[in-house]
Design a protein that fits this description.
Elements (H helix, E strand, L loop, with lengths): L10 E5 L5 H14 L6 H21 L3 H10 L2 E3 L2 E3 L11 E7 L2 E4 L2
Antiparallel strand pairs: 1-4, 2-3, 4-5
Helix pairs in contact: 2-3
Length: 110
């Protein structure tokens, strides 16, 4: 916002979350509890998925540090942001997408 029209044409990466039924449920719960819109919806959804993934790992392998780590490598579940899984480095690279600013709005580059 601060850059105004000067930012048009600038490319950047950010977390992208497509609209889904799960996202709508998260929004409803958030609004109900905090009486406001989430300031950064994608990060709210990623946080939801992170806790969901840890819960699945604990249920699959146990509560210890190594058990959770190993459980995360093995999970594949449908979260609010889509399929949640991790590669051999522990990353879930599907979150980052490229955007371009057009008329002051970040637009997903397809």
């Amino acid at each position: 916002d601060a850059a105004g029209g000067a930012a048009d044409g600038v490319y950047h990466t950010n977390v992208y979350v497509a609209q889904s039924e799960k996202i709508q449920k998260i929004l409803e719960k958030y609004r109900s509890k905090y009486k406001e819109e989430p300031k950064v919806l994608p990060l709210t959804a990623v946080g939801y998925d992170a806790m969901y993934a840890v819960d699945a790992a604990v249920k699959a392998k146990g509560i210890g540090r190594e058990e959770i780590k190993n459980g995360l490598y093995e999970i594949r579940l449908e979260g609010a942001t889509g399929i949640v899984d991790f590669d051999e480095t522990g990353l879930s690279p599907r979150f980052e997408h490229i955007f371009v600013v057009r008329n002051g709005t970040a637009v997903l580059v397809e």
